[in-house]
What does this fold into?
Amino acid sequence: MTTTPVQRTESGAPAPSSADARARRTSLDLPYTLVDDMFIDGAYTPASGAGRNPVTDPATGEVWGGVPDGSAEDLDAAVGAARRAFDAGPWPRFSPSQRAAYLMRIADEIEARAETLALTNTRENGSPITETRGAAANAAGIFRYFATLAEYLEKDDVRPFPFAPGQESVVRRDPVGVCALIAPWNFPINLVVIKLAPALLAGCTAVIKPASPTPLSIRFIIDAVAAAGVPAGVVNLVTGSGRLGDALVKHPGVDKVAFTGSTPVGRRIAAACGELLRPVTLELGGKSSAIVLPDADLDSMAKVLIRSSMRNTGQTCYISTRILAPASRHDEVVDMATSVISAAPQGDPLDPATVFGPSATKAQYETVMHYIESGLAEGARATTGGRAASPADGLEGGYFIEPTVFADVTPAMRVAREEIFGPVLTILKYDDGGPGGGLDEAVALANNTEFGLGGLVFSSDPDAALAVADRVDTGSIGINFFASNHSAPFGGRHDSGLGTEYGIEGLAAYLTYKSIHRNAR
Ligand code: NAP
Ligand code: MG
It folds into this structure.
């Protein structure tokens, strides 16, 4: 496989460069580009209106596809189909094991579509192809994991009354109903599948609304569901703006809402669901910290730095974009981060050599540039990056920003407190000469945000690392690496969300319980 050589700008940072960018795009033969339909009641169905939203390649700025801007009528049709499939269809009446068999078939069908899915996803949001090539396998893994929980759903759960011998309760785990699944653009497959798989296993039906920038790649999941023979109406797809998402959240035919996205939109959805007393799961933004203990092995940290702190061009909710470095090793940490980030190739996301792609949208590009300007204005020092990337052949209209490392960051700076969602790393210093080796200060810094989603501790001492991890106020935290585990709960505290995905706890979000009290038999 040939890789595109990386051009160097005057700062020495790799710039987006791809002489082959145009050729790569013209040679693509993707099944979905301009589409006029949505998946409703078991079939791709023409939209009721002529309104269409564009799909843009963020590496070039060119529009290459489009989808219907769904109307209230389309939404009624989709929710109506999901409602009928739940109220009268076979899906909720199948046994959990029967549904699990469908989940296993869906997983196989997704894997059969891995490459077109990856190419479509990369064209939609500029995620590096090495990232999106893992999306199908990850999605299949999630379906297969939830299939294993059929056993849990089928287990008899009969509980004696603690103080009344002779009486007992049968506890049922019923599906909660029609689920509205609303996803963002950064991981458009995973963030739908982590809702859809448990919803389907539970016996729910679903209406999916993808983010506007990424409405096409999700069709490969829909195709897999259809190819697996899932009955009509169980899974439906509507496309459209945030307005359609709002209408879906409030639709009278919906029983539960699962949302991943920004904190401001999450608050609005929570308010609407509060008014309706509609159960809701919210996976929102983050601003997580990597605490570097004085004994950390920086060579090992260098190997996982991009994955744990800059994954997907910094567009990952749980990454630790704040590095908390002990004063005694601060300069070493800055040098390590600077050399790792500045050596990582940025360029055409369709090029397998690319580590950093463009920002996913023009709006996100502008937000990130604004944060970079704010960091510089507040006195942060860019040791690499700190500006837009210079255009390269074939990628002149792309939304590229040089991956940036900010040193001399103080806790009050906006870049230290707010979610940037772009290729910007901040390094803050804590005083490890202080009482307790500075750990109180490091933990306080880590906990000094409105969020509580991810985090990391780097240390050569597993016990010391675990003790620090226990003190961080967050939903998930890694020791020397970060990854999500399908079987362990993932969720945010505080402004990072409500409720849990993954694991048996993630399945519980799609269940409603019923206790049937009776005389013991
Ligand atoms: P967003 O603007 O909140 O949008 C997310 C989804 O909600 C999109 O489908 C959007 O549709 C829709 N939407 C917008 N307004 C709505 C409304 N009033 N009611 C219902 N739905 C509405 O987020 P984004 O910009 O796509 O994604 C970036 C954010 O997601 C970041 O803050 C990131 O941290 C967060 N995120 C969190 C996690 C996690 O698991 N915690 C994972 C990934 C990302 P349109 O696209 O059509 O506007
Ligand atoms: Mg948005």
In short: The first strand starts at residue 7 and ends at 8.
